Amino acid sequence: MSSPKERRSVVTGIGVIAPNGVSTETFWKATVEGISVLDHVTREGCEHLPLKVAGEVRGFDPADLIEERYLVQTDRFTHFAMAAANLALDDARLGRADYNDSPFAVGVVTAAGSGGGEFGQRELQRLWGQGSRHVGPYQSIAWFYAASTGQISIRGGFKGPCGVVASDEAGGLDALAHAGRTIRRGTDAVVVGAAEAPLAPYSVVCQLGYDDLSKLDDPARAYRPFTSGACGFVPAEGGAMLIVEEEVAAESRGASVRAVLAGHAATFTGASLWEESRDGLAHAIHGALEDARCAPEEIDVVFADALGVPAADRAEALALADALGRHASQVPVTAPKTGTGRAYCGAPVLDTAAAVLAMEYGVVPPTPNVVDVCHDLDVVTGRARPAELRTALVLSRGLMGSNAALVLRKGSGSPS
């Protein structure tokens, strides 16, 4: 992604809207305490569907953070992204005064795997139930994968390079890499991340075709990767947005450098071909380490993909052994998402946020609901583990076959 002689990309702000917290502070407190918020699905219209457990964002009122004129144009997934972007901008102390004279220096990149299913479902119900005159004009844009990027850029007045990664789950890490490349080419700052809202009835029905979706109705047992009881993953809504800046530009305005995006790599091995994902994920890890000029033994913590499918879990454990050698069984591994569910493209961005916070506070958060680990991995369970963390590895795989790895270095700043 960059070398010491190039423009380095650093994280200066974090904004989180997640099932375990609608702010970065509440998210981190629940994450480090290992609190699981997985529960029975309560969204209207989902009561009789086979999906019984999910990670829902509760206590979130978008009107508290977003103006009405934007709310009526957008789906829940964009509400999450816009609210998280607000929080990230505030956290980075990046305001209009910082870019009024150079709006083309700030870009926006988001990743999305499902789009605006709830908005689209509502409008289609109006079409078939009441007629075409009852369908609003925003149906044409609110469902679209790029809606979050567009609305964040319009609302913030960001005129720099903008884009969207329409992908499976690993797209969350690919969006961060895209932001890094954008900064390397000359942009000063990028608002980047992902948020998803896959729990509307239509969206849930679309997911029921995934064999890897957990159908258990016990929240404590529905999502337990790396264990003998692994039976699939639990979906979630929410996500995170980060402010990524060019290091010199960030420091010149007095921003706190919280982490460095040091290296990234991605591969593709095919939909649900979990045995093949071993090789693909190992190649991604090798590539990210090489990009970061990082030796395997320098990795201090791994934020695992942790799909919860036995074949996929085994492939991930073997991929880590292939890429990190003996260090794979010694480095702490964690998967906080077992307490919140997998928010598709939002999941690895939430893991990235947690990794930055873990390095800042010197603690590896635990993996909720996981006890009987059956792989040769040092999975942190039960309680958080204090540790000196300078370098973190974040992994992600998507159901459609993408694999991605991201290396983060601890920044020079400190929590505010």
What's the topology here?
Elements: E1 9-17, H1 24-32, E2 39-40, E3 53-54, H2 68-71, H3 76-92, H4 96-99, E4 106-112, H5 117-130, H6 139-142, H7 147-156, E5 162-166, H8 171-184, E6 189-196, H9 201-207, E7 238-246, H10 247-252, E8 259-268, H11 274-292, E9 301-303, H12 310-324, E10 332-334, H13 346-361, E11 363-364, E12 378-379, E13 385-386, E14 391-397, E15 402-410
Parallel strand pairs: 4-5, 4-6, 9-10, 9-14, 10-12
Antiparallel strand pairs: 1-7, 1-8, 2-3, 6-7, 8-15, 11-13, 14-15
Low-confidence stretches: none
Largest sheet: 11 strands, mixed
Name given to the CATH architecture of the largest domain: 3-Layer(aba) Sandwich
How large, in whole angstroms, is the Cα Rg? 20 Å
Percentage of residues assigned to helices = 25-40%
Mean pLDDT: 94
Name the CATH superfamily assignment of the largest domain.
Thiolase/Chalcone synthase
Count up the domains: 2
For this entry, what is the oligomeric state of its chains? single chain
Total beta strands: 15
End-to-end separation: 27 Å
Q: Can you tell me the CATH class of the largest domain?
A: Alpha Beta
Order of helices and strands: EHEEHHHEHHHEHEHEHEHEHEHEEEEE
> What global shape is seen?
globular
Strand order of the largest sheet: 5-4-6-7-1-8-15-14-9-10-12
Structural class: alpha/beta
CATH topology of the largest domain: Peroxisomal Thiolase, Chain A, domain 1
Number of DSSP helical runs:
13
Family: Belongs to the thiolase-like superfamily. Beta-ketoacyl-ACP synthases family.
Domain Ketosynthase family 3 (KS3): 6-410
Protein name: Ketosynthase chain-length factor
InterPro entries: Beta-ketoacyl_synthase (IPR000794), Ketoacyl_synth_C (IPR014031), Ketoacyl_synth_N (IPR014030), PKS_Beta-ketoAc_synthase_dom (IPR020841), Thiolase-like (IPR016039)
